Amino acid sequence: ITWRFALEEIEGSVQHTYAEAFKEHIEQISGDRIVVDVFPYGSLGTSTQLTELTRNGSVNLAFASPGHLADKVPETGLFNLHFLLPEEPEKTRDLLKDPELISRFQQPYRNSGLQLLGFISEGWMTWSANQPLRSLEQFQGLRIRTMTSAMAAEAYRAYGAEPVQTPYSQVYSDLQLRKIDGQTNPVFAIEEMDFHEVQTTLTLARASHFIASVVANDDWYDGLPEQERTWLTDTIRDLADHAWDNQEELNQERLEQMLEKADIRVIRLTEDERELFRQASLPVRNRYLEVTGAQGQALLEYVESWQQP
Ligand code: 6CS
């Protein structure tokens, strides 16, 4: 039996490392009765197209990032909100594998023909541009590329930027041609997509994490023999901590590599600077509530409750 697993990222990425570990795990516990075919970003299409392929059953498993998915599954727009997840990274790690959180998201994913298996963080979103982005003033009119969902763009419109929503594969050339001024992604992604070649400055704001969800086609998942479904859910659970450690390592390592090979400046926002962005980000939560109603409100309150020390 073959399980097809589609990725939104290229080889060597956080998603690819995850999928390779998943493959090894599944093939081992199933005694090679299940073979996992991993499709890195490229041949199958954009993130949005991958979600379509999962919905129609062409692939069984995929990564689906809320940055793209929120137009289809509005509740996932939650992960595009800034300054929402706990300040302490370990708490965010625990929140993402919290069964309560995952169960609250099941129905919204189901409404779109998807079975949610788990969430992972791929690290802090870093802002890249050809200038520092220390203040709201520096964001005014900045053409910043965001992921394609409306909520992903709203988060930066709130800072005064002019968001441009494009697929991942188009970002490098848009930066090179100066169609956009900046973009936002975890450090590992900036390095592997070579954005450092066409950007001079990284601003580490710690405003949001890059969250991704692992999803399956709902009918395929429902039709799995019980044994296989157990292998699948056990594997996802067992990989959660591995995924967390892996992104930390990759992000750290790629930052060092970038500093060695590129003439790139790294800026870390102070707590006072972050506070001004936090305040500017808060109205976006109302936009989220307008789109998601009572269901979204319950989710938002639940996640906010994790912020308490
Ligand atoms: O920026 C994007 O569109 C992409 N970034 C990452 C790190 N993963 C997948 C996503 O599509």
TrEMBL record:
Pfam families xref list:
DctP
Is Signal a UniProt keyword of this protein? yes
Q: Which domain of life is it from?
A: Bacteria
Q: Which UniProt keywords apply?
A: Signal, Transport
What is one Gene Ontology biological process annotated in the Swiss-Prot or TrEMBL record?
Answer: transmembrane transport
Membrane-crossing residue ranges in chain numbering: none
Q: Which InterPro entries match?
A: DctP_fam, TRAP_DctP_sf
What family is this protein classified in?
Answer: Belongs to the bacterial solute-binding protein 7 family.
User: What is the designated name of this protein?
Assistant: C4-dicarboxylate ABC transporter
Q: Which organism is it from?
A: Marinobacter halophilus
